[in-house]
Recover the amino acids of this structure.
């Protein structure tokens, strides 16, 4: 049984700590920063490199195991497993790139990269499941904030890579080996299940707005300082001050629990006194007319007594039958969800959005070099900032319109995938001066897919097994990377490079390709795939429209009576 922390302050402490863990969980986004070293130092071909990119995505997104045990183990233990995976996986990569150990086999590096980036799945599952349950009526906002910071992590790591580590791949891998686990061990105490709020109030909305504004400031600051450091020769004290200010900005979410500590006597919108201590829940009853006891019980594994009471009362009144299947919006078991068409439509739409986007991300350095941009640091920063804007903005915008107009969240996946069609055509055209703009726009569209999928799957299939549902949906990322990056992009790139160098075929060489033809066919295929994804998302949005009209009929989220489990 996982212990639940009581009071109004601990959830905000946990959310502030989760921000740092999400930054650490973005370690998989660093692949473009050291991929060129894997190719040059170890002599890999582009196809071998793209298969390592597939390993990167498989490790990051195959989180079925942490998803299954997220109801069994406390968050601190899940975070510990992620920290050890990061240490051992990146440690092996550091040994290879730094030439500390020579001639490590390719298969060992592939497995090590899987293990290293699988830490992201453990870390993300721990903080996302915990905070979604701590803030059940603000799922879209919480998902947008956490995944936004996760998207911003690439820009944070790029700042550290260029300023502190001086563009050294071996130093970056050593930093990931030691720094990420250390951060997890510091923060794991604060990420814990807490008493969930039963309704929204003005104070909570203002707190979320503050965190969102702080995250935007961090994003703009990191992007600006990265460009300045790349464009000008700055002294060491100035660059180190950049890092210091960035760390201070990342601590901004912790200002909310600090305010609750310094000013504990605040009257909430419901007229109750918030004392800010662990007994605050005594003056804020959990059970209110707007939420069912059964629904609150579904947030915690093993807490089924209230659900059973609701079941008995409903059966006694003849309202329900004991063995009926759950309806969309209620808590589903995994075996019940996988037979639903909406489950697979959401998976396919998400697969198209993130699978095509991650193909560009994994090959971003080679795309930039092929189009004449040899310093790809700014490209990664632009993609990261766009990814952050998409994740944060997707959560905010979808939350607003779902509450005011009951527009299904997946409507925004439709809009972004239409835009992605034009972005890929822009990449394929290789028009001079459009590379940076196309990269930033693609980052935004890519980020929206995450912040929409997460609350959508919880709203359609419930929070009880959310960890498993979320991690299953995340399989769309490595599957897309394998099909579009590993099999398609790498093969086309190597064939074009062979033509340019007068060879029949490249195997095990690190010959580079230059010019727009290196990825043109790949981008055209990605555009066609997004066309199919757009059609599927339109069908999904039409199917789930009634669910959102039921959940948000009163202008705010309303948990349904769940008597199925």
């Amino acid at each position: 049984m996982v212990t639940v922390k009581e009071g109004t302050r601990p959830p905000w402490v946990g959310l502030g700590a989760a921000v740092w863990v999400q930054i650490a969980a973005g370690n998989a986004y660093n692949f473009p920063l050291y991929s060129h070293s894997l190719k040059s130092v170890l002599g890999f071909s582009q196809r071998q490199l793209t298969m390592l990119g597939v390993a990167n995505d498989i490790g990051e997104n195959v989180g079925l195991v942490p998803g299954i045990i997220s109801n069994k183990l406390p968050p601190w233990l899940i975070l510990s497993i992620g920290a050890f995976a990061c240490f051992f996986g990146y440690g092996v990569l550091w040994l290879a790139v730094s030439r500390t150990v020579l001639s490590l086999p390719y298969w060992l590096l592939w497995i090590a990269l899987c293990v290293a980036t699988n830490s992201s799945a453990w870390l993300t599952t721990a903080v996302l499941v915990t905070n979604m349950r701590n803030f059940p009526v603000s799922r879209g906002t919480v998902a947008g904030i956490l995944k936004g910071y996760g998207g911003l992590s690439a820009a944070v790591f790029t700042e550290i890579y260029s300023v502190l580590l001086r563009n050294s791949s071996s130093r970056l891998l050593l930093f990931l080996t030691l720094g990420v686990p250390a951060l997890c061990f510091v923060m794991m105490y604060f990420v814990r299940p807490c008493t969930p709020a039963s309704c929204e109030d003005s104070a909570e909305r203002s707190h979320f707005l503050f965190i969102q504004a702080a995250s935007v400031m961090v994003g703009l600051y990191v992007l600006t300082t990265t460009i300045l450091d790349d464009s000008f020769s700055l002294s060491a004290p100035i660059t180190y001050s950049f890092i210091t200010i960035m760390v201070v900005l990342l601590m901004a979410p912790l200002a909310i629990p600090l305010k609750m500590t310094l000013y504990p006597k605040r009257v909430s919108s419901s007229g109750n006194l918030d004392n800010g201590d662990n007994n605050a829940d005594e003056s804020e009853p959990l059970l209110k007319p707007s939420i069912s006891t059964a629904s609150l019980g579904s947030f915690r594994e093993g807490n089924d007594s209230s659900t059973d009471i609701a079941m008995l009362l409903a059966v006694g009144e003849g309202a329900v039958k004991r063995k009926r299947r759950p309806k969309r919006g209620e808590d589903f078991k995994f075996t019940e969800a996988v037979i639903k068409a909406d489950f697979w439509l959401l998976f396919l739409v998400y697969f198209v959005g993130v699978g095509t986007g991650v193909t560009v991300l994994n090959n971003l350095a080679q795309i930039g070099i092929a189009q004449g941009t040899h310093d790809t640091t700014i490209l990664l920063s632009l993609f990261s900032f766009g990814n952050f804007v998409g994740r944060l903005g997707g959560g905010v915008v979808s939350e607003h319109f779902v509450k005011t107009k009951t527009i299904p969240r997946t409507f925004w996946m439709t809009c972004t995938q239409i835009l992605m069609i034009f972005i890929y055509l822009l990449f394929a055209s290789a028009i001079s001066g459009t590379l940076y703009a196309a990269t930033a726009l693609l980052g935004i569209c890519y980020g929206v897919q995450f912040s929409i999928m997460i609350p959508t799957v919880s709203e359609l299939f419930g929070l009880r097994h959310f960890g498993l549902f979320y991690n299953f949906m995340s399989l769309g990322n490595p599957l897309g990377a394998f099909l579009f990056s590993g099999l398609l992009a790498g093969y086309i790139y190597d064939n074009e490079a062979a033509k340019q160098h007068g060879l029949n075929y490249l195997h095990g060489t690190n010959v580079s390709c230059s010019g727009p033809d290196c990825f043109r066919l790949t981008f055209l295929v990605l555009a066609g795939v997004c066309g199919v994804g757009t059609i599927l998302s339109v069908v999904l949005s039409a199917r789930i429209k009634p669910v959102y009209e039921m959940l948000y009929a009163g202008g705010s989220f309303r948990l349904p009576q769940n008597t199925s489990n």
Summary: Strands lie at 266-267, 273-274. The longest helix spans residues 520-551. Confidence is low (pLDDT under 50) at residues 267-305. The radius of gyration is 24 Å.
